[in-house]
Amino acid sequence: MKILILNGPNLNLLGKREPEIYGSSTFEDFFMELKKKYADVELEYFQSNIEGEIINKLHEVGFSFDGVILNAGAYTHTSVAIGDAIKGIKTPVIEVHISNVHSRESFRHTSYIAPNAKGVIAGFGLQSYELALESFL
């Protein structure tokens, strides 16, 4: 099984950015733990702060991977283009969020990804990614 974890803007700052919301672990450390725990799964990771790069990556893997775990960050609430990219590919996508976006500002309650995603997992910290991975298994 081949799964891509795809992170959007500002998630490269995990471990430094607002630790009271996002925790104190870097994503790279968490990803290495996931790779060890799920050694039988081919896990890849990509992060970009650039909307077009996220879309290009979805197009690149969207017909050959078994799943995408996507935390599009703030693009979740603004990017029709990422939503359209997900709609246009065959690989199922699960939208994830570290925080419970529904307990935050009202603009975060709208997702342009969710209507085209297999499912949405939010509010479980970095465990949101592992829950998404388990759903593919």
Structure description:
It is a single chain. The chain is α/β, with parallel strands linked by helices and 137 residues long. Helix 3 (51-61) packs parallel to helix 4. The protein starts with a strand and ends with a helix. It is built from 5 helices and 5 strands. Strands 2-1-3-4-5 form a 5-stranded parallel β-sheet, with helices on both faces. Helices cover 33% and strands 19% of the residues. The protein has helices at residues 19-22, 27-37, 51-61, 80-88, 127-136, and strands spanning 2-7, 42-47, 67-71, 93-97, 119-122. The chain has a single domain, classed as Rossmann fold (3-Layer(aba) Sandwich).
CATH class type: Alpha Beta
CATH topology: the name is: Rossmann fold
H-E order:
EHHEHEHEEH
Please mark out the parts with pLDDT under 50 across 5 or more consecutive residues, or reply none: none
- Count of alpha and pi helical runs: 5
**What is the annotated CATH architecture?**
3-Layer(aba) Sandwich
- The helicity comes to 25-40%
What can be said about the biggest beta sheet?
5 strands, parallel
Query: What's the CATH H-level superfamily name?
Result: Dehydroquinase, class II
Mean pLDDT: 92
The number of distinct structural domains comes to 1
Kindly report how far apart the N and C termini lie. Answer: 8 Å
- What portion of residues belong to β-strands? 15-25%
How many strand units?
5
The shape is globular
What structural class is derived from the secondary structure elements?
alpha/beta
Q: Provide the spatial order of strands within the biggest beta sheet.
A: 2-1-3-4-5
**Gyration radius, to the nearest Å?**
14 Å
